[in-house]
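Working notes for the structural subgroup meeting. M.R. asked for a predicted model of this chain before we commit to crystallization trials. I am recording the input and output together here so anyone reviewing the notebook later can reproduce the run.

Input as submitted:
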Amino acid sequence: MAPRKIAKKVTTELPYNEDAERVVLGCAMLSKDYCLDIMNTLEEEDFFLGKHQIMFRAIQTLAVRGVDVDVLTVAEELANLKELENIGGAKYLAECTNTVVAASTLSFYIRIIQDNSVLRKMLTTIRGIDNEYRTEEIENINDFILDSENRFKESIAKRHISSFVTTSEIAPHIEESLEKLQDADNDSDVIGVSTGYDRLNQITQGFKPGELIVVAARPAVGKTAICLNFAHKIATHSKKAVAVFSLEMSKEQLFNRLVAMDCCVEAKKINSGRLTSATEKVKVLNSIKTLANSKIYIDDTPSIKLNDIITKATKLQAHEPDLALIVVDYLGLVSVANKNGRSPDSRQEEVRQISLALKALARDLKVPVIAVSQLSRAVEKRDSQRPVMSDLRDSGNIEQDADIVILLYREDYYADKKTNSAANKKGGQLTQNDKFELAKAQKEKELGAEIPGNASYTEVIVAKNRAGQTGVARLFFYKDYVRFDSPSKEWEDAMNAISEE
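Returned structure, recorded in token form:
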């Protein structure tokens, strides 16, 4: 016979368990160890009844002072606070200590109090949202939904707070992880998802779950391009899902770039539709089919709100459990709004909120998140334009929260600026010697300017790597194809020889 369901009584009262609250407070007055456990896991607001909140506050005050907690010391503290009679006197304190429970049972009662506390907060939040919807004017329904979702998450957040875990509990998981890595058919050092570039993999060991990766450069150096290359390689080679939040470019522009890097046909030809041969047309159509079968998800909402990114990424992972990378391009255009729809008081505070939230998103979804950022103009005012982490805009927060910071440096980018500057100074004319010196400097760095695709030597500088080493990965940026490729071993050897001279 199936158990009979008990109908719940409809009530507006908030849930609590008086017996559990009384037992826990009694235990705190009976044992120092019990008291420490209770003080470390509960807060005053977790207790519903006012008299129990007063008792907890008194016990906590004594514990902080280092005074032994028992019925007498608690009674004295309450008397000093003129609260003893309000909780029922010394008689009630004694009643609370009448029930002695084992340590394992105590944790059960603590959990009852915690669950009721979370449930109260959740119900109060839901009622508040309902009341606000019914009584206040809602200017933007989307903002209201996102804010309500945020408030609901905050109301239940305490339930997800983890407790200490011993190393003996962690060890079996690490052993299991090591066995999986050893059994895997993997000759590389990649632990996370492959970046697609061997040297970068050697430095970073791939992009690992839960990491916040910042990719930064001056405008037009190639930061969006390299992130698209990461996404393309993960989606087409590793066959995993990738999310790209593009705040500057439309989905059509991004798709055309992906096609260009996939088939090595000039992006400008694809954008204009002016393919010069049947071969190019076949290449482009084949790449379109390849990308159509990949799992690259693009959201091109301009000035997207931070909450939207979090919500959409979470929903996407529920739909695509193999989500391997999230790209936000770029951090400077993400907007943050509080409950009243207002932005934070300062840009620094806004960046702090964004970087913390993206780091939390990476950890919650166990997926690497790339945040694209710009470098400040300060880098162009120095003798050496090779970037460092302090060149990050609002670098304090970004640098602190990021697990990996990647800075892009292209000497030809700054050489072009010098050319334009020199041309302006000379009325638009450069001497042959000027041109020769600029060309010579670039030749020495590139050792192959004749490479098709308007190649540009690029240093991918891993300036911070919380889980490993830092270093430089040398890549060629084929600007016409919006494509980054690793140089040959011969080119690397030649570059190393020049560096040693």
